[in-house]
Amino acid sequence: MSEQPVGRSGERVVVQLYVVIVALAGVMGFVLGNIRPSDLEPELFGVIALPPTPLGVAIYGLVTVGLGLGVLLALVVYISRHTDDDGQRERQ
Question: Which spans are transmembrane here (predicted)?
Fold first, then answer.
């Protein structure tokens, strides 16, 4: 009897990596907020002003990196699900 190799789904690994990167951005934002540079003024999308506190900078990091990578990840997932292996669109 041959055993099948144990592995992870590629999509699952990418999503786990996404979560780790977004969490790391939040942690780095918190650290940067604790350092408190004098010119730190986080603004989400250039509109929503956040306080220059550790929590405010962590939220800024989480949202900006999460949204930026999330849009790209969603685009990759959408394209991968709607194309054939040959690179042609599926007809549904």
Answer: 12-35, 55-79
pLDDT digits (tens, 9 = 90+) for 78-92: 888 888 665 555 555
> Using one digit for the tens of pLDDT, what is the confidence trace for 17-64?
999 999 999 999 899 888 877 777 888 888 888 888 889 889 988 999
The CA–CA distances, whole Å, from 32 to 11, 25, 46, 48, 57 equal 31, 10, 19, 19, 7
Virtual torsion, Cα 42, 46, 49, 55, nearest 10 deg:
-40
User: What DSSP character marks residue 89?
Assistant: B
- Compute CA 4 distance to the chain's CA centroid, rounded to the nearest angstrom: 32
